[in-house]
């Protein structure tokens, strides 16, 4: 099992290559956010700025307070946090119930249901953009965070159900059966036995949903036009006026917008990987 | 079949209502609320103006939504096809969208409200952008065109005391500036990247060569002799005479401003907001810039392309009078003057260009006012956006030397004809 | 009786949400694709203004050279990005599955591109490719690949390559993540047996690892193909479909037709055609997968 020196060398070479591939753009991004507008706009190739500055960050955090044509970034950040957290919670609750039914009970149309759930994921979102806008507009539900939450929940449900029913299926039924004999209700079985065992899978699914709703742009851009409802992706795209892009703001906003998902991904790394490996076995 | 399907659709809608609708309350305290969507161009100023308006009209509440210009059209189009709360009372309209919006009755004609005095006192270029067929559709909010900026210092070094008056002079002066090494590369750069701006710049050359987009009957005629000459001149300036930067075919209006601002070029043609940028503290050409008339050819007028916007009322609006009141307020001389003082915008009223306070505040105001006498507008076609996309590609092919001007323009006129089909 | 109803009770919330927010709009969209809603109608929800025109919208789409151009670009985009993401992702997963120092940290850092929002990724790469001050533009010029600073995003082929590299960089991490997860759950004893048999590393890769990874590979490929085929954000931010339709992927074309040109019916018909394509992909993948298994 001992590896030769040669093998060792190639593995480390590979690891270094992977790290350069992964990190080089990120490092350039971080440097850019600390550069002045002049450095960003200079036509010479340089990797380090002529002088470091935090101006981009102070600009971002005060955005909207003195210039109304710049979307208030902190408000957008808050909106995005509300939307993606609510979407995640709502999606998980609904998907857990549905997955429980699919994985634990036998009923008519079970397979068809699972398949059609997957089918919904294949519909291009653009097909739903106008119909959903018309329907939501009819009920005055535009510029409304709840509307975005509902839409994102619907988009993420198929994937969440598909992942979760895989986890639930991998849990042996023996324990539940004795619980049933003790008179525990089916909801009780779900809460007391199934949820704790499949926690890592639920967290993994939750992270995927959270990242997907944090990421969404097309619907957010058409469904929101007030600062009270614009999400962070919309705000970043609006750091530009006609033909003029404020790269400093866009990139700095982008870095800040990336921090929550990156931190989450790093924190829950173990769950994501183990969750995925369990899920893909049975999925 | 149709009935059955409509029934089905209505059933689905009802299901959706009972299933998903979350109740939304409307305030019923007698106060009228109007919803306004506007580009972020003068967002700061408009926010202040709204406060002033609400103070004068305590019964009207204005909900102003500012969106990036790039997303304005798409959001408005979606809202026209909706009703209820998603519908706006007042929309911000770019001049090229007039035909599209008016033809589909997305915006309400206001011809009866535009009195003769108003029509006489407005800058004609401003008034014209709101016109489609025989009707007026809104009130202009600001004036903008491609102005011709030049670097006084550089021209002096080359021995010139005045900007070029004809395009031939422009070529000659550019060559001299380059030969003497006053500009390191080509004497000017233009925003001829494949975007809406390119159509505007073509308009500037078309107009100053004596051509027009549409004839008096609204028929596209820009493949005329003048049109071909104008496009040929644009191409030769890049490819043959090399007085215009080669990279212009990839530039937008921000990049050419940067080049001029850093003292790399001697001329630039662009919007009115350039003025403040060029005289900002970080500008290398601060205090050395003047605005002249766009050069011309064939002895025609020094015409340039407009790029202004106006506000209009939608037919869905349940508060048409309040909406128009708000638009009139923003367009009033008082607010237009404030807008010029605080936000540097060019007013829509002719006499404001002679206002001493404004003149003091904006040294180029008078020169800009002169240019505003000679304008050409991009053709407002029902299918303008579609036409523009195709036209940009054709223009670029010519500028890159892949197509000859005549073929490209003939082709573009065909596209314009099919884009001007009304419903 | 209650027992029979029970599973359905658990399904009700999911059913309601999907019905209202996915199924109803899909039906509506199919509906729009059969009526004439080109420019002249400003009330999508006013049945009095509807006129049915059968498959005319579909025929218009299929007769439009713009559609075929977009389809070709979308297929190129999908095949190239998914192909690179698969190869690079597999290589990264195999490397990170080995034992080396600071493995946990490296595995964590690898997740960053995946966690980066698509919009941010697009903004970042747009800046790298900027004609005047982009890092990549500058590098290419300094290394002599281009004659001075060139405007990468304003040439048809290079713009397509630019959006593809941006997509590949971000989503390789996703493929690697899924494959690494699968690698970690593979039974170790099979490898030991193969080593005893004297199988070389590459033989082991193709005869053992890849077949064992097949389910995970399928999952990664299906998800990535669907996403790539529907790619929108990256085009919207980086190129706006330009230059000259060079990066006009189908989703963007459908958006442009509906939201910019106002051809709602064309957009709806195009979206239905896209759905058919994704269904076909799914069937093909699943066929291949089951054939391999049985």
UniProtKB/TrEMBL annotation, chain A:
Main location as per UniProt: membrane
Q: Does the keyword Cell membrane apply?
A: yes
Query: Which UniProt keywords are listed?
Result: Cell membrane, Membrane, Transmembrane, Transmembrane helix, Transport
Its record classes its membrane topology as: Multi-pass membrane protein
Domain of life (superkingdom): Bacteria
Task: Identify the SUPFAM superfamilies for this entry.
Answer: MetI-like
Subcellular location per the Swiss-Prot or TrEMBL entry: Cell membrane
Pfam families recorded: BPD_transp_1
Q: Which CDD domains match?
A: TM_PBP2
TM regions (residue ranges):
9-34, 81-102, 123-142, 148-168, 189-214, 247-268
Residue intervals of the ABC transmembrane type-1 domain? 77-268
Q: Which family does it belong to?
A: Belongs to the binding-protein-dependent transport system permease family.
**What name is this protein filed under?**
Carbohydrate ABC transporter permease
Its taxonomic path starts at: Bacteria, Bacillati, Bacillota, Bacilli, Bacillales
UniProtKB/TrEMBL annotation, chain B:
Does the keyword Signal belong to this entry? yes
- Entry keywords, A to Z: Signal, Transport
Tell me which domain of life the UniProt entry assigns to the organism this sequence originates from: Bacteria
| Signal peptide residues on this chain, from the entry's feature table | 1-22
Task: Tell me one Pfam family matched here.
Answer: SBP_bac_1
InterPro entries listed in its UniProt record:
Bact_solute-bd_prot1 (IPR050490), SBP (IPR006059)
Q: Which family is this sequence assigned to?
A: Belongs to the bacterial solute-binding protein 1 family.
From the Swiss-Prot or TrEMBL record, give the protein name.
Extracellular solute-binding protein
Automatic annotation (TrEMBL), chain C:
Segment forming the signal sequence = none
Q: Which UniProt keywords apply?
A: Cell membrane, Membrane, Transmembrane, Transmembrane helix, Transport
SUPFAM superfamilies xref list: MetI-like (SSF161098)
Q: Domain named ABC transmembrane type-1: which ranges? A: 71-285
Tell me the membrane topology, using the record's own terms: Multi-pass membrane protein
Q: Which residues cross the membrane?
A: 7-35, 75-96, 108-128, 202-223, 267-290
Where, per UniProt, does this protein localize? Answer: Cell membrane
Q: Which family does it belong to?
A: Belongs to the binding-protein-dependent transport system permease family.
Name the record gives this protein: Carbohydrate ABC transporter permease
């Amino acid at each position: 099992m001992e590896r030769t020196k040669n093998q060792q060398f190639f593995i480390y070479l590979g690891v270094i290559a992977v790290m350069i591939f992964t990190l080089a753009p990120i490092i350039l991004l971080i440097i850019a956010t600390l550069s002045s507008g002049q450095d960003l706009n200079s036509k010479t190739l340089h990797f380090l700025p002529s002088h470091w500055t935090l101006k981009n960050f102070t600009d971002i955090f005060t955005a909207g307070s003195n210039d109304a044509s710049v979307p208030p970034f902190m408000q957008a950040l808050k909106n995005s946090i509300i939307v993606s957290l609510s979407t995640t919670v709502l999606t998980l609750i609904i998907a857990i119930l549905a997955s429980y039914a699919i994985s634990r009970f036998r009923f008519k149309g079970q397979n068809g249901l699972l398949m059609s759930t997957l089918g919904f994921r294949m519909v291009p979102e653009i097909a739903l953009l106008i119909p959903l806008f018309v329907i939501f507009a009819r009920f005055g539900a535009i510029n409304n965070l709840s509307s975005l939450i509902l839409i994102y929940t619907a988009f993420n449900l198929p994937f969440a159900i598909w992942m979760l029913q895989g986890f639930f299926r991998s849990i042996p039924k023996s324990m539940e059966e004795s619980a049933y004999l003790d008179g525990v209700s089916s909801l009780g079985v779900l809460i007391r036995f199934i949820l704790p065992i499949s926690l890592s899978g639920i967290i993994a699914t939750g992270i995927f949903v959270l990242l997907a709703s944090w990421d969404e742009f097309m619907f957010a851009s058409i469904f929101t036009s007030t600062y009270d409802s614009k999400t962070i992706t919309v705000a970043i795209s609006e750091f530009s006026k006609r033909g003029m892009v404020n790269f400093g703001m866009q990139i700095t906003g982008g870095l800040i917008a990336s921090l929550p998902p990156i931190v989450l991904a790093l924190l829950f790394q173990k769950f994501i990987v183990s969750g995925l490996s369990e899920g893909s076995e049975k999925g | 079949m149709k009935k059955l399907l409509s029934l089905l659709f209505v059933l689905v809608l009802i299901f959706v209502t009972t299933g998903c609708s979350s109740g939304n309350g409307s305030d019923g305290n007698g106060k009228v609320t109007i919803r306004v969507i506007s580009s972020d161009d003068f967002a700061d100023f408009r926010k202040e103006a709204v406060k002033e308006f609400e103070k004068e009209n305590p019964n009207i509440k204005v909900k102003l939504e500012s969106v990036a210009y790039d997303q304005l059209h798409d959001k408005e189009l979606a809202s026209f096809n909706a009703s209820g709360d998603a519908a706006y009372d007042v929309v911000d309209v770019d001049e090229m969208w007039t035909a599209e919006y008016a033809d589909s009755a997305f915006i309400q004609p206001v011809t009866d409200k535009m009195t003769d005095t108003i029509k006489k006192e407005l800058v004609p270029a401003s008034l014209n952008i709101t016109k489609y067929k025989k009707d007026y559709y809104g009130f202009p909010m600001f004036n903008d065109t491609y102005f011709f900026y030049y670097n006084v210092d550089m021209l002096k070094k080359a021995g010139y005391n005045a900007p070029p008056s004809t395009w031939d002079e422009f070529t000659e002066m550019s060559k001299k500036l380059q030969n003497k090494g006053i500009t390191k590369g080509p004497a000017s750069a233009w925003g001829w990247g494949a975007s809406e701006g390119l159509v505007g710049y073509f308009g500037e050359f078309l107009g100053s060569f004596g051509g027009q987009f549409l004839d008096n009957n609204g028929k596209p005629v820009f493949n005329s002799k003048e049109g071909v000459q104008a496009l040929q001149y644009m191409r030769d300036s890049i490819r043959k005479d090399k007085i215009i930067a080669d990279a212009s075919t990839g530039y937008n209006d921000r990049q050419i401003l940067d080049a001029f601002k850093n003292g790399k070029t001697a001329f630039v043609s662009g919007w009115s907001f350039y003025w403040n940028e060029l005289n900002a503290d970080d500008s290398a050409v601060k205090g050395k810039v003047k605005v002249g008339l766009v050069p011309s050819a064939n002895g025609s007028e020094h015409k340039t392309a407009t790029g202004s916007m106006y506000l209009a009322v939608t037919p869905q609006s349940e508060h048409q009078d309040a909406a128009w009141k708000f638009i009139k307020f923003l367009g009033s001389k008082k607010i237009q003057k404030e807008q010029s003082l605080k936000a540097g915008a060019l007013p829509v009223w002719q006499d404001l260009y002679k206002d001493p306070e404004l003149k003091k505040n904006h040294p180029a105001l008078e020169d800009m006012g002169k240019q505003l006498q000679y304008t050409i507008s991009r053709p407002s076609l029902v299918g303008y956006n579609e036409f523009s996309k195709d036209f940009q590609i054709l223009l670029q092919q010519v500028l890159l030397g892949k197509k000859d001007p005549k073929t490209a323009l003939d082709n573009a006129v065909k596209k314009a004809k099919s884009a001007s089909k009304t419903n | 009786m209650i027992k029979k109803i029970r599973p359905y009770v658990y399904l009700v919330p999911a059913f309601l949400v999907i019905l209202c927010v996915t199924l109803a709009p899909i039906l509506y969209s199919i509906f729009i694709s059969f009526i004439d809603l080109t420019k002249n109608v400003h009330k999508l929800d006013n049945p009095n203004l509807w006129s049915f025109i059968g498959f005319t919208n579909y025929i218009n789409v299929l007769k439009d050279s713009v559609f075929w151009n977009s389809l070709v670009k979308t297929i190129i985009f999908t095949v190239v990005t998914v192909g690179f993401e698969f190869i690079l992702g597999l290589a990264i997963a195999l490397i990170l599955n080995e034992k080396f120092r600071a493995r946990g940290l490296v595995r964590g850092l690898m997740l960053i591109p995946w966690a980066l929002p698509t919009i941010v990724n697009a903004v970042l790469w747009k800046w790298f490719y900027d004609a005047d001050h982009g890092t990549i533009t500058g590098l290419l010029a300094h290394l002599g690949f281009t004659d001075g600073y060139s405007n990468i995003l304003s040439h048809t082929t290079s713009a397509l390559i630019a959006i593809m590299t941006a997509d590949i960089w971000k989503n390789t991490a996703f493929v690697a993540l899924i494959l690494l997860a699968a690698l970690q759950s593979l039974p170790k004893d099979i490898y030991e047996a193969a080593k005893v048999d004297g199988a070389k590393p590459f033989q082991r890769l193709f005869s053992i690892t890849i077949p064992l990874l097949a389910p995970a590979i399928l999952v990664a490929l299906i998800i990535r193909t669907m996403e790539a085929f529907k790619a929108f954000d990256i085009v919207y931010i980086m190129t706006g479909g330009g230059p000259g339709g060079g990066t006009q992927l189908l989703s963007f074309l459908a958006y442009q037709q509906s939201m910019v040109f106002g051809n709602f019916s064309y957009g709806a018909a195009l979206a239905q055609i896209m759905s058919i394509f994704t269904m076909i992909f799914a069937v093909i993948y699943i066929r291949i997968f089951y054939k391999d298994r049985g």
